[in-house]
Amino acid sequence: MADSTVLGLTAVIVAVTDEVPRVLVVRRMTHDLATPEQRDPDTDGLDALPFGPFNAERDRTLEQGLRRWVQEQTGLPLRYVEQLYTFGDRWRDPREMEGGPRVVSTGYVALVQEAPLSGSGAAEWHDWYDYFPWEDWRDGRPALVSRAIRPALEAWCAATSDPSLKAKRAERIGTTFAQDDDRWDDERVLERYELLYEAGLVEEALRDRALRAHHGLPDPKWANGAQALGTNQPLGTAMAHDNRRILAVALGRLRGKLKYRPVVFDLLPQQFTLFRLQRTVEALSGVRLHKQNFRRLVLSGGLVEPTGTLANTGGRPAELHRFRRDVLREKVVAGIGLPTVRMVE
């Protein structure tokens, strides 16, 4: 059994509601790959992404299997989904340490509009910045970065006596959590999470190291010298297994795609104001955008067109727009872009 491998399917389902980017998580599962705490409705288990094993006899394609599991666990039918990545690190499921199979999971990302949930998974919508509070720069550099993360990472860097390793750590800190705000790269979500994991600054790292120690397994090479460095607060909400890593991959992918594909429109109704469009892009990217530059870019790029109707916003009426689907045939690159980031009006 220890040499066997099973294939799972994991869904990152994203919505933006009232300027809050939300991800769908589940607390209870009934399939064979569910951990005991995920099966017990009376146990307060960790947040998990919708997940289930691939049934080759029942499902013709991986995507069909994913849609079935999501429908069963959340009651939410999916429209467009995109394959994200395949996650197969050894011991990503702790039961492998006890002789269980290696669980390889193919991840998918789906963009939807938030809807009521049902199904068997006790599903809930959660703010994705609860899991990555250092990624939300809409009100400027998060205090957590300067107060806790940078000092802890610098202490971790200084903790090694190996000059080569120290230089590598310093370089990674500089490229992921740069001191200069203008050097912040919004797409490096996975790199930042993995750095915090390797430094022992997120709960998953401490949990995984404790599990390895319990089963007499050695720490990975990167863990030499890693330790919890006393940030005095948890760095984001922990998730089951490596689900926060999967979520980090999805967030970085979406932020990148904003710049060259019109993915944001899958999160909006058919008609919307330019203000709502901007706020949705800001929610995904985690930065504030210059209003006039943003509108000029969107309109000149032919991404939207006016509908000729006005929306009652409670103040001055705003014109409603819709996405021009013809732009997909007209342009190779048809993204929103992030004009003059971190500038407020």
TrEMBL record:
Q: Which GO terms describe its molecular function?
A: catalytic activity
Q: Which CDD domains match?
A: NUDIX_NadM_like
On the tree of life, the source organism's domain of life is Bacteria
Q: Known InterPro entries for this protein?
A: NMN_biosyn (IPR011213), NUDIX_hydrolase-like_dom_sf (IPR015797), NUDIX_hydrolase_dom (IPR000086), WH-like_DNA-bd_sf (IPR036388), WH_DNA-bd_sf (IPR036390), WHD_NrtR (IPR054105)
Q: Which Pfam families match?
A: WHD_NrtR (PF21906)
Nudix hydrolase domain ranges (all copies): 6-150
Protein name in the entry: Nudix hydrolase domain-containing protein
